[in-house]
Automatic annotation (TrEMBL):
It comes from the Bacteria. Residues 169-288 form the 3-hydroxyisobutyrate dehydrogenase-like NAD-binding domain. NCBIfam families: ThreonDh. The active site is at K175. The lineage of its organism: Bacteria, Pseudomonadati, Pseudomonadota, Alphaproteobacteria, Hyphomicrobiales. Its EC number is 1.1.1.411. Belongs to the HIBADH-related family. L-threonate dehydrogenase subfamily. The keyword NADP applies. This is L-threonate dehydrogenase. Catalyzes oxidation of L-threonate to 2-oxo-tetronate. Can use either NAD(+) or NADP(+) as cosubstrate, with a preference for NAD(+). The keyword rRNA processing does not apply. Keywords: Carbohydrate metabolism, NAD, NADP, Oxidoreductase.
Amino acid sequence: MRDISKAAVIGLGSMGWGAALSLLRAGFAVNGCDVRHEVLQRFSEAGGRACDTPAAAADGVETVFVYVVNNTQVEHVLFGPQGALETAAAGTVFLLCTTMAPSATVAISERLEAAGMMVVDAPVSGGHVKALSGEITVMASGSNEAFERADAALDAISAKIFRLGDRPGPGSQVKMINQLLAGVHIAATAEAMTLAAKAGIDLKTLYDVLRVSAGSSWMFENRGEHIVAGDYTPRSAVDIFVKDLGIVRSEAERTGGVTPLAETALNLFVEASEAGLGREDDAAVAKILARKCGATLPGMEG
């Protein structure tokens, strides 16, 4: 019998935390790395090995999942002081789960491969609940050998893996388009719920009707519930969509694409962030629209 597989998860936010726990449930020995000591303590209590640095996390493992926020953080945890490349053995598979511009993903992948590593471009979708249950969707691209080596680890965290190409890049491209739709749907949800509140419609009743009607979407079902409850605890924060829709804008400009709806949604997220709502749940963009029209949403009283 072979040894229990070893994996690392760098970045134990809502998605990385779910991936780490899913790996533990599947029998992996898991190193977890995060800048928050209280999160590392919880991870240790859950059965993982808490690591203060990416270098410590990558030491002796077969696969490294990277779940930090943006490409700057990815570069830091991989190539910076006490980064993962200081200890990772040649042939280690790095799964880049961070949402990044495709061009950034390709550049980082090339640096990893030049250092003797293997890479799967592996952005994910499904939210923190599916991450916890090991049922996320992975939009992946990379070599056959990288997929073969990471197969068991990917199966542990996901319900569906789409293989989109044999080189890093296509995974990030598809995730970018997903985020375009997600951001626009959140903005549309905020607009619809705010208009309903201004018109005096009971939001819970409206939500119950629309979630089973043609105007619904996954984002409406999920974020609409947050607005009805007045609960803006961040599952995915406003600032995440400032970043992700910013990627849509920059890539559209680079390729000559036209994205007017994404641009409008981005402006709303930027306005919410500048108003101090950047770390609240992304549904908090509804507060900006409510303030503009004098509507009162749940959680805004007083």
